[in-house]
Amino acid sequence: MKTIRKTLAVAALAGTALLSASAHAFFGNDDDTLKLGYLVKQPEEPWFQTEWSFAEKAGEKYGFEVIKMAVPDGEKTLNAIDTLAASGAKGFVICTPDPKLGPAIMAKAKSYGLKVVTVDDQFLNAKGKPMTDVPLVMMAASQIGQRQGQELYKEMQKRGWNPADSAVMAITADELDTARRRVDGSISALKEAGFPADQIYRVPTKTNDIPGALDAANSLLVQYPNVKHWLVVGMNDNTVLGGIRATEGQGFDAQNVIGIGINGVDAVNELAKSKPTGFYGSLLPSPDVHGFKSIESLYKWVKDGVEPNKYVEVTDVVLITRDNYKAELKKKGL
Ligand code: GLA
Fold first, then answer.
1. Does the CB atom of residue 95 touch ligand 1 within 6 A?
2. Whose alpha carbon is nearest atom 7 of ligand 1?
3. What is the predicted pLDDT for the residue at 32?
4. Where in the numbering of this chain does the Periplasmic binding protein/LacI sugar binding domain appear (predicted)?
5. Which of 3, 77, 1 shows the shortest CA–CA distance to 37?
6. Does the C-beta of 45 come closer than 6 Å to ligand 1?
7. In whole angstroms, how large is the CA radius of gyration of the chain?
8. Burial, 210: exposed, middle or buried (Cβ in 10 Å; 0-12, 13-18, 19+)?
9. N or C: which end of the chain has fewer CB within 10 A?
10. What are the residue ranges of helices labelled H in 32-73?
11. Cα dihedral 36, 315, 240, 324 sign
12. pLDDT tens, 13-61?
């Protein structure tokens, strides 16, 4: 009997040790290192991978640990906040999979005393209005969109296209404010430059990825069989890439298509292709700055009580094409 009890006690102890060992492996250090989360909606986009890696650079600089988590939907987001709280994290940066989750995310974060900084996509409240009291780091959406329109027009002129048989395919995602502002900016710049307004066609994508944009673009292309040259507008590289793939599928030559994406880092494989495609280039903003600054401001908030600015707009942007993309990425350390 005595031996059995002893064995059980040893087993129980071993069990505890095992549990804490796995908790240790999962949650990282159990020393006093400060932990901060970085939650992103689409970890498959190099944009978000770049943010993560620059958040880690901030972690190295200031001595905190970054817990990187993928949150593709609402359920995973709320679960991630539970996990973060259980690990002892003090706050997180988030690019939400859906802006309307804002109030639920904030309620859960508050229940655990976690601080929140948003990046890229702004939260919306129950009335659909931006939650301007939550700190946000984002790109200058309208301005960068306008630049997309201006560069498209410039390239079209360089190629000597006749506006009469050219059209704009604008793949929209209006429920996402940053996407709406980018596309609206692009369209207004095209009109301003002189592109005929009634040859600018908008089509919504169901999902913010290449397959979604491809479907949207296909449905648009079949409606306008007489267009010879297409300009492709979209809120990011994947959206524009979907448009380009659709033109290829419907037999357009790369020479007759000009697409310019936004994000830059998501366009590297395309620009590296041995032959040019209709994807002419991409506007590279600053995922490095977004990743570093957002978590740096969270760190200072947690550590020193310094409240972050409510709104940080990142404006720098550079057009990368097949000719300069390697050099431009290198300049930013990407
Ligand atoms: C949105 C887009 C991303 C990226 C970021 C940049 O979240 O979905 O692809 O463009 O904005 O702010």
1. yes
2. 120
3. 87
4. 34-327
5. 77
6. yes
7. 24
8. buried
9. N
10. 46-62
11. negative
12. 333 333 333 444 444 455 689 999 999 999 999 999 999 999 999 999 9
> What are the two backbone dihedrals, phi and then psi, of residue 138, each rounded to the nearest 5 degrees?
-150, 165
Judge contact between 298 and 66, C-beta under 8 A: no
Q: CATH assignment of 35-134+287-315, given 3.40.630.30, 3.40.250.10, 2.60.120.40, 3.40.50.2300?
A: 3.40.50.2300
The DSSP letter of residue 199 is G
Q: How many residues does the chain have?
A: 334
pLDDT of res. 30? 54
Cα distance between residue 329 and residue 253, in whole Å: 28
Q: Is 126 helix (H, G, I), strand (E, B) or coil?
A: coil
Residue identifier of the C-alpha nearest atom 12 of ligand 1: 120
For residue 162, report the distance from its CA to the centre of ligand 1, in Å: 33
Q: pTM higher than 0.85 for the full model? A: yes
Written in H, E and C, the secondary structure of 222-274 is: CCCCCCCEEEEEECCHHHHHHHHHHHHHCCCCHHHEEEEEECCHHHHHHHCCC
The topology under which CATH files domain 141-284 is: Rossmann fold (3.40.50)
